[in-house]
């Protein structure tokens, strides 16, 4: 079990009026702002023996108490010798890459494996310090482990903030291709179920009716072709919720082929497929320096066509 160090700090005159998380970050420089905020949420950092919000503004006489668990020493992650990252574009501001199936975008606390973030830092050491988190330098958005396709990565903080705002403003175009079970009744449709954490399985998200509690989500699809009770869809997402496409397609009873998480007993065959048939095909954004829209394509994997024609 990791040891925990307990500390106490009386707020100074210069800290009065500052946000709690900002001051706590200065007290624990070895932790990222994200991890410091997690301590606050977990109740491991208090003000006057009380839990307060991370954006609480400190007052004269406040006393901060915090407990910091010692960092676990992790086994060094070794880069696979056969690893190949396909770079579609690079310049001084951004790198556009194709993420392969099976590769994590960035590390999670429970994983000790090579990630896209590791590879990017090795290939582009200048991205160190770019972004909001030390585990994901330059990473502005992510793809699930089993999803392949195009991603953009920032090489400077200015580019990171610019791309982050474009994602927040929903002006970046993200087009996917998916092969799903069944044939949708409509050749074009919008799915606007809200997304929330599943109460049955914390590792999953759940799609609920629009008037339910949760985060708004909007997925648009077109049926491109159907074959043997399978359909290939062109999917556009106008929001970027966790597992949005997979949860939305399951909610309309057309789960993605090969998806063992967002599935049902009706589709036990998903376990026999060698991949998740979801691919980020096109990404369009406005370049920071040129102010022009740029578009990048990741070719549809050959197995998609093979599945739809076999």
Characterise the protein shown here.
This protein is of the alpha+beta class and 310 residues long. Among the domains are: 66 residues, Structural Genomics Hypothetical 15.5 Kd Protein In mrcA-pckA Intergenic Region, Chain A; 140 residues, Pseudouridine synthase (2-Layer Sandwich), CATH 3.30.2350.10. Strands 4, 5, 6, 7, 8, 11, 12, 13 and 14 form a 9-stranded mixed sheet that branches. Strands 1-3-2 form a 3-stranded antiparallel sheet. A hairpin with a 7-residue loop joins β9 and β10. α1 crosses α2. The longest helix is centred in the middle third of the chain and has 12 residues. The chain starts with a strand and ends with a helix. The model has no long low-confidence stretch (mean pLDDT 90).
Largest sheet: 9 strands, mixed
Secondary-structure element series = EHHEEEEHEHEEEEEEHEEH
Strand content: 25-35%
CATH domain fold name of the domain at 170-309: Pseudouridine synthase
Q: CATH superfamily assignment of the domain at 170-309? A: Pseudouridine synthase
Total DSSP E strands = 14
Query: What number is the mean pLDDT?
Result: 90
Low-confidence stretches: none
Query: What would you call the shape?
Result: globular
DSSP helical segment count = 6
Please identify the oligomeric state.
single chain
CATH architecture level-2 label of the domain at 170-309: 2-Layer Sandwich
